[in-house]
User: Fold these one by one.
Assistant:
Number 1:
Amino acid sequence: MKYYRAHVLICSGSNCMIKGCRNIRHTLEQELVHHGLQWEVKVVDTGCLGLCEQGPSLIVYPEGVMYGRLATGDIREIVTEHLLKGRLVHRLMQQPTSPTGEVAPLSLTPFFQKQKRIVLKNCGLIDPERLEDYVQTGGYTALATVLDTMTPERVITELKESGLRGRGGAGFSTGKKWELTRAARGEPKYLICNADEGEPGTFKDRLILEGDPHLIIEGMAIGGYATGATQGLVYIRGEYELSIRRMERAIRQARENGLLGKNILGSTYSFDIEVCAGAGAYVCGEETALIESIEGNRGEPRFKPPYPAEKGLWGKPTSVNNVETLANVPAIMEKGAPWYRSLGTPNSPGTKVFTLTGNVVNSGLIEVPMGITLREVIYEIGGGIPNGRQFKMAQTGGTSGGCLAAVHLDIPMDYDSLQSHGSSLGSGALLVMDDSHCIVDLTRCFLKFFVHESCGQCTPCREGTPALYELVDKISRGEASEVALALINRLSRTLQNSSLCALGQTAPVPVLSALRHFWPEIEAHFGGRCPANKCVMGKAVGKSAN
Amino acid sequence: MSEHAAHRREKIRPFVSQAGGLLKALHALQDASPEHFLAPCDLKLVADVFDVPVAKVWGTATFYSLYSTTPRGRYIIRVCESAPCYVVGAMDILKTLEEKLHIKPGQTTDDGRFTLEVASCLGVCGVAPALMVDMHVHGNLTPDKLVSILDNYV
C-alpha cells in the first residue's frame, strides 16, 4: 500500500460541483505535477462536507486545514505555500489559528461544534466511489454482525427500542414498519429506499447518496434481512444524475464483493438492489404514489389501508423507507439502541439532518441532535442573518411546514414540539427569512407550489389548492376583506380532513401557521398596506422577490 | 417496419422486465428525440412493447414534468421558483430570462434554441437561486450571470 505525505480532500457534492470544484481539482493536479508532488500528495473527491456557502472548498490533511471560496487562481498558492513549504495560506482559511500558529480543529469551529454526525459521518471524508474507503471506516461491519449474530426479529426489536422514526417527514416508527412488513403474508417482499426528494429546501438525501452510497446499501441490506425482503429498490429523482450514477456504481461494487446478491457474506441471506429514476413529480415522495410510479403508472397515491407493508409494490408486502432513515440503521445495529436513545429527545431519539437555506450566513447541510433549538441552528451553526438584517421567520419541514416567528427561536426541534406550534420537522428543510420578506407574499409562493404539484386525483386537493391560492393572492393585492379568513379556515379544514394523501392534507399548514403567528401583518393587507412593502396592491401579479 | 422503428423497439424492450421500466422507456425515447419530446408514435410504441393501452402510456407521460408531449428547443431551461430560490431572487432570474429570450414559460424561442420552463425545487438550494439547462445545474445566479451561461449553449 502506498503512503502519502498529505491528503487533499475536495468537496464534490452537487452544490460544490455547481460552484466549479471540477476546475479546482484539475488545476490542483496540474500544479502538483508541476512541482513534482503528485506522488506525495493524494487528491480525493469526497461527498458534501456541509459548508455549501463556502464552496468550492478543500481540506488538507494531516493538518485538517480547510480552504474555502476557492477560485482556480488560489490553487497555486496552496500548493507552493502549504503543500511545498508547510506554510498556511491564512487568507483562504476557514478556521482561526492561535497566536502560536496552531490551527483550531474543524470540529471545534462554530459550524461543526454542535453537530453530531451519524448519517453524515463519512460525508466529506471518504471517496464515495471507492468501496475500500467505506470499509476502512468500519463499513459493512454492522451488516456482518447482524447476519452472524442476530435474528431478523432481534434486529426489529433493537430498532424499535432505538425509537428511530421515519426521517422523510411522517415520523412513523421504522421498527414497527419493518415488523408489519415481516408479519405480512406474500412473497416476494420488497424494500424501497425513497430518494424522491422533492420538498422545497431539502437536499439532504441527494447529498447522502452522493457522499456515502454504501451506507444506504448497508442499511437496505439489513432492512431486507429484517423484513424478509429479497429485492430492494432505490427510487431517485430524475434530476439527481450524480446520485443515480454513484448509487449504481456502489451497487455494482457491492455485488462484485459479495455484499449484495446471493448468499451475502457467505450467509444464507440473499438480497439485491436496483435503481429507478423518477420523472419529476413531487407527489411521488408519497409512498403509495412512488409505488405506482415504479409500476409505470401515473404517480397517484392509493387509498390507505391497505398500507404498503401489507400490499405494496405489485401487491406484495413492501417497506418504504427514507434515505436518512436507512442511513441510521447500521450505526444503531453496531452501537445499540441505548446509545441511540442517549441522543436527541425521549420522543425523537437520535440526530436529524437539516438543510439550511434562505437568508442565513452558512447555508448548507448539517446533522444535529434532535431537540436543538432554532436559535442554536440559525445563529451558532448558521452564523446568523446576513446583510445586517433581522430574523423574521423560519419555515421548518419544507413548503408543507409552517412558518415560525422570532418568539419560537427557543423551542426544541423535534417531531412533537414543532407540531404543537403548527409546524413540522418534515424532511429537515429549514428556510430562514429576514425582515425584508412579507408573510403573505411568501404564503402565496408556497401555495403556488401545491397548485402545481397537486396530482389532480382527489377533488379536495385538485380544487382546493387553487382556491386557497386565489384567496391568499387576493389578500396580497389588498382586495380581500376579513370574510376571506372564514373561507380560508373552512377550506383548510376540508383539505386536511378529506384529501387522499399528505400533499393535500399539509398544503394548508403554511397558511394556517401564517394566520396563527403573523396575524397583524396579514391584517394590515386588509387595509391595503403591505408592511414589508413586497406586495403590490391592486395588481394581479406580485412583484419580484427583491 | 422501418429499420429505425425496429431499432427503437429493441432499445426499449429490455425495460419491460425492469422495475420502473415504463418510465425508463419514456426517458430513453425522449432522450433520443432531437426535439426532446415524446411523439404519438413513441407512446404507441411503448404501449405496444409493454402490452398496455396507449391511454395508459399517455396518462403516464403527461403526468410527470420531465416528459413533454410537445416539441421543445435544443436546450431546456428549467428555472426553480420554489420558496428557497424565491426568497433570494428567483423571480428576477425568470424575468430576465423572459426578456432576453422573448418567451414566456412553456414557450420555445423562434430559432428553436431554448425552451423555458419553470420547475419546482431542483434540490440544490445550497446554491439558490438555481436553474438547470438540460442536466447541467447553474447556481448562485444573478441576472448578470445569465448572459454568460446562455452563451455556453449554442
Note: Chain B touches chain A through 48 residues (CB under 8 Å).
Number 2:
Amino acid sequence: MADQPATLRKPAAAHTHPRYVRMAVFLFVVTAVEVAWALLKIDDWIMVPVLMVLIALKAAGVVMWYMHLRFDSRVFRILALGPFVIVVGMILVFFGLFGGFS
Amino acid sequence: MSQTFTGGRPAPSHPPTSLGLDMRKVGMWVFLGSESLFFGTLIANFFVHRSSSRADYCEGLNQGDLAINLTAFGAFVLLMSSLTMVLGLAALRDGRKRSYRGWILGTAGLGAIFLGIQAFEFTMFALEGKGMSSNMFGASFFALTGFHGTHVLIGVIWLLSLVFLRVGAESRRPLEFSVGAGSGVRTHREPSDGGAGISVELCGLYWHLVDLVWVFIFTLIYLLPMENPCEAEAFESIRVVSSVLG
C-alpha cells in the first residue's frame, strides 16, 4: 500500500455521517463571538489577532467539512491551498508596499 | 465507456481517469482557486484604498456608515445556506429526492434573503448620496461586495436550475479505483453511493466558496477596526473651539 497513489487511500464515501449540523452550530457561535468581540472596541493589538484566529476557524470549518476537503483527495487540497497561499502572500506584499494597515 | 461491470446500473457518464478523480470536480477546484485570487485582489485593493483619500473620506461612504447588525444577520443567513446545501447533497445521495429538492430550494431562498439584505444596504447608501464614486472607500467597497453579490445571484440561479430544469440530474461520478489486496491489480468499481449528484456537488462547491468569501469580507471589511479620520477631525474641531473659547 506504500506505493498506492494518495487518491486511492480514501474512498469518496468514507464519510457516511458528517456532523453538518454540529458544524453549523459551531460556525454560528464563532460568528456571534466575532461580532461581540468587534463591538468591544478594545485595542487593535489584541482585537486584530483574535479576529484573524476566528476567521481561520470559520474558514477551516467551511472548507474541511462543507467542501469535504477533510474527506476528499489530497489533489483537491493542493488545488485549494495553492491559490490561498498566493492570495495571502499577495495581500501581505500589498500591505508592505502601500501601507494597507493604516 | 464499454464498462460491463456496473451491475445493471446505467453506464457512468464520466470515464475512469488516471487520478481516479472526476475531472469536472478537478476543473471546479481550479476555477475556485482562480476565484479566490480574484477576491483576494479585491480585498487587497480595499485595504490599500480604504483610507487613502482623507479629504473626501468623511463626506463619502466610510466605515462608520456600515451597518454591522444587518450584515451580521446576512452572514448568519449565508452560513445556514451552506448547511442546507450539504444536507441537500446528502439527501440526494441517500435517494431522498423530495427532501433534496426542499433543501436546495431552501438554500436558494436563503441566498435570495442575503441578496435582499445587500440590495437594502446599497439602496440606503445610494439614497444618502454615498455611492461608488463618493470616495475610494466607496469605490473599493462596492466593487468587492458587489462582485460577491453577483456571485450569490449566479449561485441562486444555478440552484434553481438544479431543481426546476433538472440540470445535470442524471450526471454520475466516475468509477473508483480499487486495488486488489496482495495482488496490487487495479480494478474499477461503482462509487459506493451510486455516484449520483456530481452536478449538485459542483454547485455546492461553488456555493460554499461564496459563503467562504463572505466569512473573510464580513470580518475584514465590517468588523476590523480602522483609524477613523472623521472622529479625529471632530475631536480636533472641538479642541480648536475649546481653545478659542478659553
Note: Residues 1-8 of chain B have pLDDT under 50 and may be disordered.
Number 3:
Amino acid sequence: MDWTFNGYRRLDGRVGVRNHLLVIPTSVTACTVARRIAASLSGAVAICHEHGIGQERLDAVQTHRILANTGKSPNVGGVLVVGVDQDDQIPPVFLAQAIAATGKPVRWLTIREAGGTLKAIDWGTSLLAELAVRAAECRREPFPASMLVIGSKCGGSDATSGLASNPGLGAAMDVMIREAGATVLFSETPEIIGAEHLVAARAASPEVAADVFAIAEKFEQQLAVMGVDMRGGNPTRGNIAGGLSSIEEKSLGCISKGGTTPLLGVTRYGDAVAPTGGLYFMDSASNDIECVSGMVAAGCQIVCFTTGQGTPCGAAGAPVMKLCANPETCGRMRDNIDVDLSPVLRGRQSLEAAGMEIARYILRIASGELVKAEVLGHTEFSITRLAYSM
Amino acid sequence: MTSFDGFRRPDGRVGIRNRLLVVPGVVCSAHVAVRIASTLPGAVALPHQHGCSQAGYDVAETARLLEGMACNPNVGAALVVSLGCEGIDGAALTERIAARSGKPVAHAHIQQMGGSVATISNGIEQGWELLSAAEAAPVVGGDLSRLVVGVRLGQPDDSFPTLSAAIDEACAAVLAAGGTVIRTTPGGDLGFGVRPAAAGEHLMDAPAEHEIEALTGLAAAGAHVILYGTGLGTPVGNAVVPVVKVTASAQALADWGDHIDVNLVDGASVLDALLAVARGQETAAELLGHDEFAIRRIGLAL
C-alpha cells in the first residue's frame, strides 16, 4: 500500500487536503455580512457563530483562539476576517494577524469603516476575490500520509455504534497510525466517563494517564456545580431509544473509535495538534458540532464520524466522512452516509478488512474525493461556551 | 391616526408580519432548515448552535426560547425541523407551539424522513402548505393598544439624552393607548424571553452587552417591533421582529446611514416610524436581510 496523497503545501509546513476560502466574522453581529460575502464566491465558507460580543473573558479568549486556529487550518488557502468595528471584543486586526502568522493570505475589514452592510459586502467580495486568485495558485502535489491529522468522532450513536462502527473506525485509526504514520485525535470527554480507567491504561506515560483522570474529574466537578446529573443530557433521548442503557455503556463503545495504539497526550479543546504521529485525546464536549469544530481548529484535515441513527453533520473547512453500521440507517439516510459498515455487524466483514478499506478511503478523500457532507453543502460550525453573556 | 391592519392569530393577538418560521430543534438540523427556508418566499430560518448535549437548565431554556420565537405574533406558521436523536424533542416542541398559539405548525424529521435531501424536499412541501395556511390569516384592524414594543438602548454616548427622550415619548404614547412596552436590563424582573402577563411597562432581564441575545429575548417574549436606540450604530436585526434603528448621533448617521430608520437629528418621529412599520413598511434591517439570532446558555456542553 502506497501511503501517499495529493495535497496543498502551506508555508507553515502543514499540508491541506482542501483549498477553502474562509470568511470569519469576529462576532455574531458580523455574521450576516460574512455569510453574504462567502455566498458570492465558490469554495468560500463563512463560519457563523453566536459569540464575540458581551462574553466573559474566558469565553472571549476561547472564541478568539478557536476562530484563529480554524483560520490556520491547512485546508484553508485564504482568510477574510469581518468585524463590526476595530474595537470589537475580538479586534479583527488581531485575529487577522494571528492567522497571517501561518504565511497564508489574510485580509480584514470592518462594517463600520465600509459604511454599512451593503458596502461591506461589496468591499469584502472584492477582497475575497483577490484571495481566491492567490489561493487558486496552489496545486496539489504528493505527500506522505504522515502529514495527516485525522479526527475520530461519533454521534447519533445507537447499539450498532459500539458493536461495529466505532471498533471499525478504531481499526482504521490503528492502520493510519501504524502503517501510514498519521496522527489521530479522538475526543469527547463526557464519553470517557465510566471508562476513563481504560483510556488511562493505554496512556504512554503516567503523566498522560494522570491527564486523562484529571479531565474526567474536572468535567464531573463542573457538572456538579451546575447541579445536574449528566444522564439528563447524555446518553441523549435518541441514544436511549437506540438501545444504549447508560453513559457507561455508551462510553465503552465510544472509546473504541480511538483504536488500540498508545495514547500519547491529552490536548486542550481546539489547540493545534502537530502531525508527529500517534494517538491524542482532545478534551472537548461531545456535542457533535462543537467537537468537530474543535478538531478542525486543532488542524485535523479530515474527520471520520460514526453514527448509528444517522446525522448529516459536516464542517466548515474539512471533509467529514460518515460511517454507519446500522443497516436501516444506511438505507434510509444513504444521502448522508459514506461508508456502510453493516457487513461488520452481520459478521460478513472483519474489523481488519473494514479498517483497511476505511484507511484507503481516507487517502482518496485527502486527494480530493468529496464526501457526502461536502456534496450536500453541510458546513456546520460552533464553539463550546464556558459562561454566561454579559 | 394610530391604527394599522394586521394578521389575526388564533390566540387573539395581531401580527404585523406574516412569516413562516423554520425552526431547527438542534444545531444538526440547522443547515436543512436554512435550505428549506431559502426556497420559500416569506420564510425565515432560525439557525442556532444548541439543542443537544446540553445539561439541565440549558435544554429547557433552549426549547422555551424556540417555542417563544414560534409563538411570536409576527409568525403566521411554523415548521420544526429536527434530527431525531437530540436532547430537544422536536415532536413535543411542535405540539407545544400548536397548543399555545393555535397556529399551523408542522414537523420535519431528518432521521425518519431519510436524510438531508429527503427532508429538504419534504420540508419544502410542508412549508408550501403552511404558507397557504398563513396567507389565510384574517386581516384585522389594530392600534397601539394591541402592540408589544420592545426597547433596547445601546452603549450610552453624548447623543443619549435626546435619544432616550424621543424613545420615551413614543413608549409613553403606546402605554397611554393601553399597549405594552418591554425594556431590557440585567436583573429585570420579567424573565428573559417571558411573555408579559399584562399590558403596561415591563423590565426584562437581558444581557447589556450581547445585543443579539437581548433582541432574541424580546422576540421570544412576543414583541411585535423593537425600537433600538443607538449612538454607535449597529447593523443587527431579527428573524421575526422588525428592529427599528433610532439615532440622534451624527457619527452613527455618517457610519451607518444605510441602517438608520429614525434620524432624530433631522427631527423624525419615533412614533410615526413605529406606526409605519406596523403598517408593513420594512425596516432597514429587514431590507438588508439582517436576521441574527443567539440564545443564552449557562453551562458547559455534554
Note: Chain B touches chain A through 64 residues (CB under 8 Å).
Number 4:
Amino acid sequence: MQLWLIPIFPLAGFLLTGIFGRRLSKTVINSIAVGSVLLSFLWVLKTLAGLGDLQIAHTEQYFTWIQSGILNVGCDFTVDRLTAVMLLVVTGVGLLIHIYSIGYMAHEGGYYRFFSYMNLFMFFMLTLVLAANYLVMFVGWEGVGLCSYLLIGFYFDKQFATNAGNKAFIVNRIGDFGFSLAIYLIVVNFGSLDFGAVFSAAASKPESTLTAIALLLLVGACGKSAQIPLYVWLPDAMAGPTPVSALIHAATMVTAGVYMVARSAAIFTHAPAAMETVAVIGVATAFFAATIGLAQNDIKKVFAYSTVSQLGYMFLGAGVGAFSAGIYHLVTHAFFKALLFLGSGSVIHALSGEQDLRQMGGLRKKIPWTFWTMICASVAIAGVPPFAGFFSKDAILAAADRHAPWMYWVGVITAGMTAFYVFRAIFMAFFGEYRGKAHPHESPFVMVGPLAILALLSLGGGYFFKVPEFLAPIFPLASESGDIGPMAISIAFGLGGIALAWLFYVAKPELPDQVTATFGGLYKLIYNKYFVDEVYGAVVVNPVVAGSREVLWKGMDVAVIDGAVNGAGSVARKAGGLLKRLQSGNIRSYATWVLFGSVVLLLVLGVMGGLR
Amino acid sequence: MNPLDIVLAIPLVGFLVMLLVPRSAEKMIRLISLGFSLVAFIASLGLAIGFQTGLAAEQFSTDVVWIYSPNIHYHVSLDGLSLWLIILTTLLTPICILISWQSIKARSKEFFAFLLLLEFGLTGVFAAQDLFLFYVFWEISLVPMYFLIGIWGHERRIYAAVKFFLYTMAASVLMLTGIIYVYNHAHTFNYSDILAMLGNGRLHFNNTEQILLFLAFFVAFAVKVPIFPLHTWLPDAHVEAPTAGSVMLASVMLKMGTYGLLRFCLPMFPGAARACAPWIVVLAIIGIIYGALVAMVQPNMKKLVAYSSVSHLGFVVLGIFSFTQMGMDGAVYQMLNHGISTGALFVLVGYLYERRHSLAIADYGGVATPAPWLSTVFMITMLASIGLPLLNNFIGEFLVLQGSAQANFHWTIFATIGVILSACYMLWLYQRVFYGETPDEVRHHIFDLKPREWVAILPLIAMMVWMGVYSQSFLPAVRRTTAHILDQTQVNVQFQVKAPASRVEVAHAR
C-alpha cells in the first residue's frame, strides 16, 4: 500500500520550504506546507480503506538500515488498528492546525521556517507511529523531540525561548537514556527489535527481564509524555508559537509515550510491577499537575499543566490494564486540548499577544466564535456527558476502580479540579468586564474554521468514535460491571468543579482573594509549582556544572594531569641541565668521570659477585 | 603499480612538485595542491569501486623488498578497515586545502606542501602491512602536523606543538621498542607473516612478554586516541592549530590510535588485550563522561570540540574492547563518523573564527540572524555529533552501546550517560553562539557562507546523511574485517578471562 508515502509528503514539504522558503511567497509556502499534510491525510484514508478491517497487521519492508552481528534492523513500517487510530489523529488534527497556522502566523517573521519545522515534525511523528520496530520508532521519537526543540525556540532571539528549548531537549534526552537502554536489553534478550518477533516471544521470558525492559521504556515515556519526575519541560515549552503548543505539546508528540506503552503492551502485561508503576506515576502526575493548574494566570500555562494532568490519566489507564481506554482518552484529548490551545491562540491573537488571564475578561461578546468553540472544549474536558472527554475519562476511571479504588478516588478528585481550572480560565477570559488595553477582534476564518471542526469533534468525538471497541482485537474489552455509581460520582465532581469556578470567578469575584489570603502558604507553593525547577537546579544542574568546571577541568585536567606532564617536562629539563654540565668539553673532567664510572662499575660487579 | 600504490604516490608527488613551485606563485600553489588532493581522492574512490566486499583477505596488495638487512618490505594492502579510513583522509585533504585558501597568508607554499605530506603519511599508516613501514609512516605524519601547529598556529602555538610532539614521540618510542622486540623473535617485520607465525605457534610470547608488548603498543595508540588520562595534549593542540590542522588532527590523526588498536594490539596480543579489556573499558567510560563534562564548561569553542572528541573516541575504544561483532563494527563506524562530523565542526568553527577573529564563545551570540545558512549547517553538524538518528553518529553509537550491552550491561548504563551529556554541551554552545540578540560586533563581522565555503562543507553534510540513512553502503566491508579481527583474538589466547564467548553470527540482509 506504499505506506512510505504517508511520511514522505511532509518530508518533501520540509525540504522545499526549508531550502527555497526565503524566496517563496506566502501563498506558495501555504500550499506546500498544508498541501503536503493534506496529501498525507488523504493517503492515510486511502490506505486504511484499502486495508480492510485490519484484523492482522500489515507490514512493509523497505531496506536494511543497520546490520551487524545477530542484529538486523530494517526500515519497516506496519499498520494495525492502533496505528490506524494514531495516523488519523496525527494527520487529521495536524491538518487542522496547519490550516489554522496560516492565519496565526501571518504577521510573524520566519514564516517559512515555521512551516518547514512543522512539516518535519509531521514526518517524524508519522514515522514514530508507523514504525515496525523499536529502532525506527526511536528515529521518530528523537526526531519529534528535535522539532519540538526547534519550535519551542522559534523566537530564537528570546533567551527564555531558547532556554525552554534546551530544557525540553535535555530532559527528553534523560528519558531517551531509559528508552535506549531498554532497546539494548531487548536486543540482548530477544535478538531482534521487530515488534512482531519481540511481542510473540515476550511471554516466554523471565518476569525480571521484562520488568527491567518495561521500566526502562517507562523512563522514556515519562520524558516524552511529561510525567513525574520529567514533566518540567512541558510548561516551559509554551514559549513556542501557540499552534506548536496545540500540535506538539498537546495533541500528538506528548502522547507518544502513551502510544509507546500501549504498543509494548505485550511486555508490560507480563511485568505487573512495571504496570503498577505506570499507574502510580500516572495518577500522581494527574493529581499533582492539576493542583498547579489551579493557580496559574498565564492562559497557556493553565492548559499546559492541564495537558500534563490529562496525560497522567492516559498513563493511569494504561497502567491499570485499560490500554484502549488510555488511547481513547488520547484521541478525545487531542480534539479538546488542541481546541483549547488554538482557542487561546485566537484569544492571544485577538489581544495582540496578551497571555495573562488577569488582563482579559468580557471577551465573549467580542470574539464569540472563539468563545463558543472553547466552551465546547471545556465541557468536553470537564467530563460533562455526553461530550468527548466524558466517555474516555469514564473508561479510565472505571478501569482504575476495578484495579484499586484509591486510584479511582484520586482520579475523581482530579476530575473535579480539572473542571474547576478550565472553567476558571474560561470565566476569567470571557466573563465580567474587559480589563486589558488592547482592541479585541475576532480571528479570520482560516483560524475559526479549524476551531469549529475541532469543536464538533470535542462534542461528538467520544460518542461517534468508539475507540475501545475498534481496538478490541488488540486490547480485549473488560467486562462492564453495570454499576453506574462511580460514573455518577465523577460526573458530580465535574459539575461541582464548574459550579465552584462560577461561584469564584463570576458570582463572587472577591472570593479568590479571600481564599488565597487564608491559605497563603499553600497558594504560594502551588503558584510557584512546588519549586521543583528550583530544586532540580540546586540539586542536579548547578552541582554538575560547577563540579565539572572547578573539580574536573581546573582541578583534574589542568592541575593534576597537566601539572604532572609539565612537571615531568621540567624534571627532564633540569636533568638535561645536569647532564649538560657533564659535557663540559674538558678532557680532564671526562677522564675523571671515566675513572669514577669504572670504580662504580667495579664496585657494583664486585658486590653482585660477592652476593652470589 | 596497483591502485593503492597510486593513491599513496599522488600526495608524495604533489609534495615534491610543490617544492619546485616558486614561492611567489600564491594562486598556483593553491591550485596545484588542490589538484593533487582531488586526483588522490578520485583515485581512492577507485579503490572503493574495485574493493571486493566478499573477501576477508587483503586486497590491492604490493609487497617488495625495501631494505635487505634488516629485512624491511614495502608492503601495503587494503581491507575494510583501511579502505574507509584512506578515503576519509583523501576526502578531508582537499576540504582542508579549500578552507585554508584565504586564511593562510604567510608561507603558503610550505603550508600546502605539508598538508600533502600529511596526507601521504596518513594514507601510508592505514595501508602499511610491515611493522617498520608502519612506524615510518607513523612518524612521517607526525612531522607536518608539528609544523602546522608550530608555524601557523595561534598565540601559544610553540607550547602546544612541543607538547603534542613530546607526548606522541615519547609514546611512539615505546612502540618502536615493541616492534624491535617482535622483530628479534620473528625475524621479520612483515605483519601477515607475524600473524601466521603466531597462529601456528612458531612465534610465541609468554604471558609477561605479551602483557608488556601489548602495553608498549597500547600506550602509543592510547596517547593518539587519546584515552583518559593521556589526553591533555589534545585541547592545546586543537586550540592552537590552524583550522586545517585541527580538522586533520581530529578527523584522521586520532583514528591512527584506534586503528592501531584494532590492527595490531588485538590480533598480535589477544590474550593480553582480553585480560586488560576491563581496565581499558573503564578508562574509555571515564573518557566518555569526563570528556563531556569538561567540554560542557569550556569557554573556548575549539576546546569544547576537542574535549567532545575525548568523549566520542571513548565510544570507539569501548566498542573495540567489548570484543563483540556489533561493538567493533560500531567502533569502526564511529571512527568514520567522528572524522566527518567533528571535522565539519572544526571547519565551521574555523569559518566563525575567520569572521570574528575569536574563539571565545562569549564573543558571539545571535549569529543565526546575520548568517542563517551557516547556522543551519552548524545545526545539522551538531545534531550529527550528538547522535540524532538518520545522521551518521547515531549508528556508530548505537552499535557500540549495543555491543557493550552484549558484553556487560553495566558498561552500557554508564556509557549511555555520555549521550545525555553530549546534548547538554552542544545545545548550550549552539544557544550561546547562534541564538539570542545580535550584538553589533557580531552583526558587523558575521556574514553568511560564501560559495567556496559551501563547496568545502557540503560533502561532509552529504556524508552525514548518507552514512546515517544507508549504512549498508559502508558496513558490509567493515563487518568482514572486524569479524576477521574478532576471529584472530580467539586464537592463541592464553589468559582465562571473563570475556563473553562471542560467536560470529551474521544475520542476513533483507
Note: Residues 316 and 331 of chain B are 4 Å apart (CA to CA).
